[in-house]
Amino acid sequence: MKVWTRDLQTLFPHIRGSTPRPNIHAAAHIYDFLLLFGPVLSWWYFPFEHLIGVLQKINTNDHTGGEMEATIMKTMACTANIHCWLRHPDCPDAIHVLKDLFDKCFVPVSRPDALNEFVERKGTHRAYVAHDGDNLSPFKTHPGNSTIIYRPLPSKPPVAGQIQSIENLHNHDGQNTGICLHVHRHNLLSKALYDPFLQFPHFNAKTYSTTLRAAEDIIGLDDIVAHAAQYNYSHGRSVMVSLSRQ
Ligand SMILES: *[C@@H]1O[C@H](CO)[C@@H](O)[C@H](O)[C@H]1NC(C)=O
Ligand SMILES: *[C@@H]1O[C@H](CO)[C@@H](O)[C@H](O)[C@H]1NC(C)=O
């Protein structure tokens, strides 16, 4: 190591001589560091550089001034201490039990699965779902994208309804296995009211009552026939025009 430090000046005459720079100095201590900290892999700079990258990407909404930075630092230090403690042979069993409970309560939105592959985890509900080139949303999120024509049962004729919520389905491992939609069906038009669109069979429009059934239909994406546009006109009537491209 000493020979290398000495010859460095000869090989690279442009470098500043006399006082060794910190990197060169640190290199002389690699032996001690190996004894102190173990394999280089766990303390070389890649993890730190990675961490800097993570920190730089945190959205701070342009807040500076130290408070948020301090919170981030303290949280990271706490996390590191807990990690360290959990791996310590003296760590009490109760702490391990608490960790298991904590992991069950707070499933991270994204976490590596058993294969260490990064799998996206979803929350319980969604703000929208893409279907057949359309974006469908619950009524509360976006009324214009919440009306659909769907089959409540595979054998039944299609009806119009309003999406109330879109639920992510998970298996017991917390993996996303699909989605289901909670829909309130539009009541059929009362016999006393007239559907002026009946006489235009080639125009994909039908009148329903503006009111919704209280009972909920729970359907899958496959049960959706089309996204529909809704227009409320007189006497609590709503015409639904299918927006299907076929
Ligand atoms: C509503 O649907 C249209 C067409 O699918 C889409 O372009 C738009 O982004 C959607 N709006 C919302 C808020 O999801
Ligand atoms: C139709 O009327 C219902 C009930 O009043 C209302 O919730 C809905 O937003 C209306 N839809 C349109 C497209 O005006």
Describe the structure.
With 246 residues, this protein is α+β, with helices and mostly antiparallel strands. The chain folds into three domains: 41 residues, no CATH class; 58 residues, no CATH class; 118 residues. It contains six helices and twelve strands. Strand 7 and strand 8 form a beta hairpin. Bound molecules: 2-acetamido-2-deoxy-beta-D-glucopyranose (NAG) (2 copies). The site of one 2-acetamido-2-deoxy-beta-D-glucopyranose has 5 residues, from strand 11. Keywords: Membrane, Transmembrane, Transmembrane helix.
Q: How many domains, in number, for the residues?
A: 3
Instruction: Identify the bound ligands.
Output: 2-acetamido-2-deoxy-beta-D-glucopyranose
Mean pLDDT: 85
- Major sheet: 8 strands, antiparallel
- Please give the radius of gyration in angstroms: 31 Å
Q: Oligomeric form of this entry?
A: single chain
**CA-based shape:** elongated
Helix content: 25-40%
Structural class category: alpha+beta
Strand-and-helix sequence, N→C?
HHHHHHEEEEEEEEEEEE
- Number of DSSP-assigned strands: 12
In percent terms, what proportion of residues is strand? 25-35%
Which blocks of ≥5 consecutive residues have pLDDT under 50? Answer: none
Keywords: Membrane, Transmembrane, Transmembrane helix
Transmembrane segments: 26-46
